[in-house]
Task: structure prediction
Amino acid sequence: MTKQAIEDIKQLLSTHKKIVIVPHKNPDGDAIGSTLGLYHYLKKGNHDVQIITPNDYPNFLKWIPGERSILKHDSQTKICNGLIKDADIIFTLDFNALHRSGYMEPVLAESKAIKIMIDHHQAPDDYAKYMFSDVSMSSTCEMVYHFIDMLGDLDVIDTNIATSLYVGIMTDTGSFRFSSTTSKTHRIIAHLIERGANNSQIHNNIYDSNSYKSLQLLGCALTNLKVVPEFRTAYITLSQEELNKFDYKKGDTEGIVNYGLSLENIVLAAIFIEDKQEGIIKISLRSKGHFSVNDMSRSHFEGGGHINAAGGKSYLSLNDTVEKFISILPSYNKALNDE
Result:
């Protein structure tokens, strides 16, 4: 973000504003953490601030300070649309294309509010007046920290801001083990702990809240794990019937794809999850090294994301989606086996 953009935003925020903050559909830890971190920061400037998510999110994120103030567009559409229409500024966090907001896309596109994007995904669309886009960043939460720093306000970070930002950095870096975790990331984490983030408690709240049924679902997923050794690939399937059997709740499949990637000699991992309500197969892809699942997802599954973590979808059946996935592996043979 340019110095001029920062000066413009400082000027914008120097007077009272009505502000809406929006994450992507099916928000994860980085989406909720970044929106709440920014929410608490902007509230300190005496602005009217409202977070609006496109839809609900996992229960393991519902303890973060300020979470109860969040509105969900799919169940509170009228009030949400009114707030978006009246907003002076709209921050879009952890996504860079308006279609990632789901059914919120039309009302966001029509809004006359000044739009500010903060995001770390590749190939951003040009919808925001001010764009803070950096694919090298570990998370949008890390970017919000830098945004606060650029505005000269690191001293205002309190326990609520620190806790929120810690959540997103921790979850989007796989508890600091992914290659996007830099020495700067660790310095930021240290500062957040100094400002009140209780790192051990945050980890427990996110990762140690499994239900009996969710662990059974994990067992089912691991039973379904398949390996394609010649292409150094592993994949997992979960049908709607299996999800129903184990009383699936939003967030129960979070991170399961990483079990495939943890196998020896595996470079590419995928999980295919049937969603009868939406009529799609949801796809998560993970990789090691320089193999780009972002390119694979964009080319074949109407998705995208990062080099080593991406998502997509398929309108084929679960079996046909898996067959399609396996059929394209030979075209990536060299990249997978050279890794």
